[in-house]
Specification:
The protein is mostly beta strands and 117 residues long. It contains no helices and eleven strands.
Length: 117
């Protein structure tokens, strides 16, 4: 079973870049047909899909966040990462990494990030 663990700072200042890493165990991030996503949930709001990295390396981003979002991977460490630039307090949320294939859907436990000066 795939397990995911988010890591990164819990506090980011406005205008800075938020950087998170998801460490994957129990499976390779290059395994066919897996899509590796970042999803967030602001306080009191629903889940928001931010973007995904496909098993073969293609990127997909939410149109509303595309200009500020980058998702990359380090296959040697079996990790994928999120960078969100020019953050504002509205980017404060619980951030989750996710692994999806047609038959499975795995989530990390999430990490709370607050944007504040």
């Amino acid at each position: 079973q795939v397990q995911l663990q988010e890591s990164g700072p819990d506090l980011v200042k406005p205008s800075q870049t938020l950087s998170l890493t998801c460490t994957v165990s129990g499976g390779s991030i290059t395994t066919s047909y897996y899509y590796w996503s970042w999803i967030r949930q602001p306080p009191g709001k629903g889940l928001e899909w931010m973007g995904a990295l496909a098993y073969e390396g293609s990127n997909y981003y939410s149109p509303s966040l595309k200009s500020r979002t980058s998702i990359s991977r380090d296959t040697s460490k079996n990790q994928f990462s999120l960078q969100l630039s020019s953050v504002t307090p509205e980017d404060s949320a619980m951030y989750y990494c996710n692994a999806f294939r047609w038959d499975v859907n795995y989530w990390g436990q999430g990490t709370q990030v607050t944007v504040s000066s």
